[in-house]
Amino acid sequence: MRRNMTKRGLKVTMAIFLSTAFLLIAPFSVLAIDKYVPSGSNSFMYPGEPVPKDEMRVTIFGSGYGYVRGDQADQSIYVELGNGDTFVFDLGEGSEANYMAMQVPYSKMTNLFVTHLHMDHLGALPHLYTFGPSADRWTPMNIYGPSGDTPELGTK
């Protein structure tokens, strides 16, 4: 009987120790973030913010593989250059919602590179092509990539 009480007492003591240690350490972890992260805990770069002239920003707006889920769209990569140029590599189904959530305007999505003609790489193209002019994309859209699945349709 004494042995069981000792184990239970040890468990209670450890629980008290760990909760006290957490309360003492937690405030210092917040200070550590501000100390070691250059701009504090708010040092995130978002699409649309200025990019220094000699840099580029790459944002992944989709990395799925054909089965769109609520938390993962199909492939799409957004590239911003310091000179103001922007490029979209693939525009898979569901990725347009991520672009809208990050407030990337349609006018910044005029250069689209499609790697191949599968729907998980170009499924959101009809959305961008159709609704772009009704938003703020009044310039022609440039689409680069293969023109077909077989040599008869333009691939070599």
Key terms:
alpha/beta; 2 domains; 5-stranded mixed β-sheet; 4 helices; 34% helix; 15% strand
Task: Walk me through the structure.
The protein has 156 residues and is α/β, with parallel strands linked by helices. The chain folds into two domains: 2-42, no CATH class; 56-153, Ribonuclease Z/Hydroxyacylglutathione hydrolase-like (Metallo-beta-lactamase, Chain A). Helices cover 34% and strands 15% of the residues. It has helices at residues 2-36, 95-101, 119-122, 125-131; strands at 56-62, 76-81, 86-89, 111-113, 142-144. Strands 1-2-3-4-5 form a five-stranded mixed sheet.
> And the CATH topology of the largest domain?
Metallo-beta-lactamase, Chain A
CATH superfamily of the largest domain: Ribonuclease Z/Hydroxyacylglutathione hydrolase-like
Q: Mean of the pLDDT scores?
A: 76
Task: Give me the CATH architecture of the largest domain, please.
Answer: 4-Layer Sandwich
Write down the Rg.
25 Å
Write down the secondary-structure element order: HEEEHEHHE
What would you call the structural class? Answer: alpha/beta
Give start-end ranges of low-pLDDT stretches: 21-43
Classify the helix fraction into a percent range.
25-40%
Write the topology of this structure:
Elements lengths: L1 H35 L19 E7 L13 E6 L4 E4 L5 H7 L9 E3 L5 H4 L2 H7 L10 E3 L12
Summarize this, please?
With 156 residues, the protein is α/β, with parallel strands linked by helices. The chain has four helices and five strands; from the N terminus they run H-E-E-E-H-E-H-H-E. Strands 1-2-3-4-5 form a five-stranded mixed β-sheet.
